What we know:
By secondary structure, the chain is an alpha+beta fold. The chain has helices at 58-71, 105-111, 116-135, 198-203, 209-225, 248-257, 269-277, 289-309; strands at residues 22-30, 34-41, 47-53, 82-87, 93-98, 102-104, 138-139, 148-151, 156-158, 165-166.
Amino acid sequence: xxxxxxxxxxxxxxxxxxxxxxxxxxxxxxxxxxxxxxxxxxxxxxxxxxxxxxxxxxxxxxxxxxxxxxxxxxxxxxxxxxxxxxxxxxxxxxxxxxxxxxxxxxxxxxxxxxxxxxxxxxxxxxxxxxxxxxxxxxxxxxxxxxxxxxxxxxxxxxxxxxxxxxxxxxxxxxxxxxxxxxxxxxxxxxxxxxxxxxxxxxxxxxxxxxxxxxxxxxxxxxxxxxxxxxxxxxxxxxxxxxxxxxxxxxxxxxxxxxxxxxxxxxxxxxxxxxxxxxxxxxxxxxxxxxxxxxxxxxxxxxxxxxxxxxx
Length: 311
């Protein structure tokens, strides 16, 4: 059960960290449960971001604490690193991370709905990063275009890990292995409508990497079709018409990733990533050009040596 906390009201006072390492500036972003402040690392120099709860709400506080616990075990260039974390004098959690200035995939799609082909490499980046998280035993559970940020240099960053869970995490009423395991209420649907997997809607507390596969497939669906899938498109519906702008191989990938049954989807995010990578121009893994050149030169040298030795 969710522990008791302060009443759910907006926090309007300036953020007080009581931490001399950081000089907190103004607000640079807001979410449903959190607010992002620009800050300066006084000791090391440079700009950072401070994420804190925007409401005095126990569920929001637990979500931010979970995000802190999850990010602490992940190490990937597409996932924000944690520099520090703590509790304000009022008892609210906060975390310090890299300041990323950019726009989300959702914002890019709204600005230019036909830009989705150019945005596919970012989905490959997300799949690679989530595969890393799965390898560390973490499932994101809320993948969607609004949680994928593209910075000003074109780099992809996955944000908002507040709903993430450990694979095989204990039920909320059982003693958790770590604080991050005890967050979600039993039977509560977890994720975002249009992107959460059917098992998340039905049971609410399923922790399975294939749920992330579904969500990333649903993200591709939104990019191509111009709108989210379910409930706009009924579960099990023929996706051919909705995905008509995409080539057949990409349509097949989306259909498999968003299958109702988890067993019908890609078994791992790594497999999903590799299949998508082979469909994105310039992202297919192959033999490096330098290695090809070396092999060709060695072959030519061998032929020359053979000719020289022949009588």
